[in-house]
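Hi everyone, sorry if this is the wrong subforum. Our group has a chain we'd like a structural model of before ordering constructs, and none of us has done structure prediction before. Sequence below.
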Amino acid sequence: MKTVRTRIAPSPTGDPHVGTAYIALFNMCFARQHGGEFILRIEDTDQLRSTRESEQQIFDALRWLGIEWSEGPDVGGPHGPYRQSERGEIYKKYTQELVDKGHAFHCFCTSERLDKLRAEQTEAKQTPRYDGLCRSLAADEVKQRLAAGEPNVVRMNVPTEGVCVVPDMLRGDVEIPWDRMDMQVLMKTDGLPTYFLANVVDDHLMGITHVLRGEEWLPSAPKLILLYEYFGWEQPELCYMPLLRNPDKSKLSKRKNPTSITFYERMGYLPQAMLNYLGRMGWSMPDEREKFTLDEMIEHFDLKRVSLGGPIFDLEKLSWLNGQWMRELSVDDFIAGAQKWAFNSDYVKQIAPHVQGRVETFSQIAPLAGFFFAGGVSPDAALFEHKKLSTDQVRQVMQLILWKLEALRHWQKDNITACIQAVVEHLELKLRDAMPLMFAAITGQASSVSVLDAMEIIGPDLTRFRLRQAIELIGGVSKKENKEWEKLFNAIK
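Answer:
Right subforum, don't worry. Here is the predicted structure as tokens:
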């Protein structure tokens, strides 16, 4: 009998997402329950956004939770390399195989032509899709244009009629019409593959037998199934897990809920409670109990107990469950956990130099620096009343700074300062116009230690969280403002 092999394949393009941990957990439990292997692969073909810093954050965040893999970029294995950016020659070989068999073709269409085509199709109330222009090019013409170095992508041939039957382990057979499918780009102009090609090639070569992924990928499943047919490979069993939702049933997003795993670590949640909570997302133990360990989840794991209703990620419920775990710790474990969280010498050493010159007694440390040991802070709304800016302008400045900091991958004081500077300069303001707002949002006080140093020390997760809290405190951002301010944000250098 074939060994069960599952995988998680995150993209290292931002903060490690709780959705990634959720899917990783279910893949790991399924594999372990069947005595199989769980592996980690990095999908880093987005050269502009992928970073090694983000990759390391993914490793650290998953390991903090207790999720381990037997093969991956950091542990090696017999099916490497495990980073897609290091597998370029493999993808070129299989792309050429598809072209040679007539299952794919070189497309030389410019982005201008494609934009115009989509606009015309949209205006005619048609599904925007590639019209197949380059599919009918003569072989000699294709050869000449390739020899001339003309930019091109490789697209797959896709039927335009009939339906594809997608066998889903949760839903049974799902029928999806082929006329909803575009002629998917498989290889980009930069010579790197898209998700679809790399995914199928890697899963096949790495012996993946079962793929548990988010249900947002279900509508595009026919393209993956077709690629398996084109290559003549046996496809893995497919399982499309329900998406995590906000309490208002919308898709989980950082605008409404903190989505970074490291945020929960910085807030002082216990990893075993967090993993327990993720295990409850759309799944339940046979006896319906709420609190269970990873080993207990693996022992009782059964996909038949997955509910298709979108599981609600509720911070209040998570905090309640975390409290259950906290209260069961021994006093020694509780102290050890608190020390590891923030009362450790490495963290305190970062804070001490900024506090020492501002206090006359040790008893003044807590009032001055207590915000370093908090999750959120509770500033008075009056602290955001500005001599120069209206309330709307204050909200705008803070939102633009938040967006700028959300995109910041190298979290150092100079880079944080540069983000704030870029926003205020674009708005024709001075740094001193924004700093009182930063003090209030980050420290909860009108003044304290250097707020820029404080932002570097508390880190990106708590900094962004406190800025979001402050913006909500003074009125939040409407949908209309969000749209207008995003245009303004995109113009900031």
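For your construct planning: The chain is about 45% helix and 10% strand. The mean pLDDT is 95.
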